[in-house]
């Protein structure tokens, strides 16, 4: 006994001694009523100071694991030592038989569990997360310290389901600067886009059980829609956004509960819907009274052309658009802060669903983001990040033109490009062959609602070094050519 005690750096020694002794008591190595070694003795055995053992024993007593007899020493508390189970009474369940249909489907659709892992040295185009080397940590640290100094006590207590008021006010103005008419609208802060989407889908009553979306579209959105039991109708994409004729036909054929759309720097195609199409789309949705869930996740990552207003701005004082915003690509996905801007009554309902589910989004995260934004850091950061991503975007595009010139490449900005090979070509087979050569990407079929897209792939370039972008796309191009014969 006592030979397997190992000290970890960075944690107070007395706590480690206390935890170690607890472990011995719980596993039955020390029995109830048994006398513990003297503090001097244990200090020598564990090679720690006697004071550390004195504090550890006091802690064990506080936690109900030991007691002291005046003048006789410390003893193991009887009940504390009786918690270990007897093997004969071990109770096991087969949890796989107890899962809900939703959990089974979530597991089935979980590509993170089944996706290919990048081995060390692999050039990976699978991620569309921001490049963390661009994060201005000093300003984030300053924002944290500044906000804690102002109201740290308040921030660490429960907050409001709607969100942190200063951040809401800031984001409302931010949306107003995108041309949104805020009359009759309110905002709810969420844990990123993904929670906002889930909350909206939970809040809207299911009537037809059908939802419209672009085809292809964001994989996580497809997953969420399926988990909510919606049938998806995917509208094909063209170079300037979804095909309006196909949309009109779909609308005429049946009823839809809503449409989920990513009009700017769409995932996975990177396409920005043209202003003309946006108007045409809004007309159709108004005519058929189908609410639009607009995903504005990438709007700020524009490298050329002029600003295109979000659909919610085009809706004016109308309330048919539910806008979901996120700073996951524009700033830091680790903060998990997003927002829903929508009709006041709908936000009121969303607030109650949010409160029932998670109470509120971390006020600490919201307040750090608020202070960071308030200090003008977003503008400075975006300037730098845009310049960096633009260089990579142009390089990736140029490499695609050079090495896979026979494909169609789309992407007007953001952190990825989308490549379409000739009909019949398999990007799954290409992926397997490229992986052998140390390059991976995302096969495009996962973004399609109907099993199409077997000849497509997505290239996320944000976290790939320039030399690797060149090398990786050359390998993809060479491998594809070999496959074509
Ligand atoms: C289309 C789309 N919307 C939103 C997001 C961001 O989601 P979240 O804010 O939950 O991180 C992503 C991230 O990849 C995305 O691709």
From TrEMBL:
Assigned keywords, A-Z: Aminotransferase, DNA-binding, Pyridoxal phosphate, Transcription, Transcription regulation, Transferase
Cofactor(s) demanded: pyridoxal 5'-phosphate
A Pfam family that the UniProt record links to this protein: GntR
Highest taxon of the lineage: Bacteria
KW Transcription regulation (keyword) present: yes
MF GO annotations: DNA binding; DNA-binding transcription factor activity; pyridoxal phosphate binding; transaminase activity
Residue intervals of the HTH gntR-type domain: 11-79
PANTHER family: HTH-TYPE TRANSCRIPTIONAL REGULATORY PROTEIN GABR
Family, similarity comment: In the C-terminal section; belongs to the class-I pyridoxal-phosphate-dependent aminotransferase family.
Name of the molecule in the record: GntR family transcriptional regulator
Species of the source: Paenibacillus donghaensis
């Amino acid at each position: 006994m006592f030979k397997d005690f190992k000290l970890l750096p960075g944690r107070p020694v007395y706590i480690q001694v206390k935890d170690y002794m607890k472990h011995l008591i719980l596993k039955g190595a020390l029995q109830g009523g048994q006398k513990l070694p003297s503090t001097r003795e244990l200090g020598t055995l564990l090679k720690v100071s006697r004071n550390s053992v004195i504090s550890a024993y006091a802690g064990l007593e506080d936690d109900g694991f030991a007691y002291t007899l005046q003048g006789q020493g410390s003893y193991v508390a009887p009940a504390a030592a009786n918690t270990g189970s007897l093997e004969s009474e071990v109770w096991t369940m087969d949890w796989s038989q107890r899962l809900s249909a939703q959990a089974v489907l979530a597991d089935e659709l979980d590509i993170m569990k089944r996706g290919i892992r990048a081995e060390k040295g692999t050039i990976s185009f699978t991620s569309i997360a921001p490049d963390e080397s661009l994060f201005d940590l000093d300003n984030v640290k300053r924002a944290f310290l500044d906000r804690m100094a102002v109201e740290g006590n308040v921030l660490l207590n429960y907050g409001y389901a709607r969100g942190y008021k200063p951040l809401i006010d800031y984001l409302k103005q931010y949306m107003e600067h995108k041309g949104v008419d805020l009359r009759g609208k309110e905002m709810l802060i969420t844990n990123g886009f993904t929670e906002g989407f889930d909350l909206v889908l939970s809040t809207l009553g299911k009537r037809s059980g059908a939802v419209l979306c672009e085809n292809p579209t964001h994989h996580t959105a497809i997953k969420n829609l399926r988990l909510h039991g919606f049938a998806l109708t995917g509208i094909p994409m063209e170079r300037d956004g979804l095909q309006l004729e196909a949309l009109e036909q779909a609308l005429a054929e049946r009823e839809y509960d809503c449409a989920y759309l990513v009009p700017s720097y769409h995932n996975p195609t990177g396409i920005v819907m043209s202003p003309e199409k946006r108007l045409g789309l809004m007309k159709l949705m108004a005519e058929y009274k189908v609410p639009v869930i607009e995903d504005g996740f990438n709007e700020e990552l524009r490298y050329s052309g002029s600003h295109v207003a979000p659909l919610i701005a085009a809706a004016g004082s109308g309330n048919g658009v539910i806008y979901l915003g996120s700073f996951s690509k524009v700033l830091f996905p680790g903060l998990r802060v997003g927002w829903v801007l929508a009709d006041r009554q709908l936000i009121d309902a969303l607030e109650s669903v949010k409160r029932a589910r998670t109470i509120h989004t971390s006020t600490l995260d919201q307040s750090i983001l608020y202070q960071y934004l308030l200090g003008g850091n977003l503008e400075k950061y975006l300037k730098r990040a845009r310049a960096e991503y633009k260089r990579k975007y142009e390089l990736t595009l140029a490499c695609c033109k050079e090495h896979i010139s026979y494909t169609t490449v789309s992407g007007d900005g953001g952190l990825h490009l989308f490549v379409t090979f000739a009909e019949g070509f398999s990007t799954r087979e290409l992926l397997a062959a490229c992986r052998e050569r140390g390059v991976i990407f995302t096969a495009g079929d996962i973004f399609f609602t109907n099993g199409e897209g077997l000849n497509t792939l997505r290239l996320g370039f944000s976290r790939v070094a320039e030399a690797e972008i060149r090398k990786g796309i050359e390998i993809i191009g060479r491998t594809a050519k070999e496959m074509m014969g």
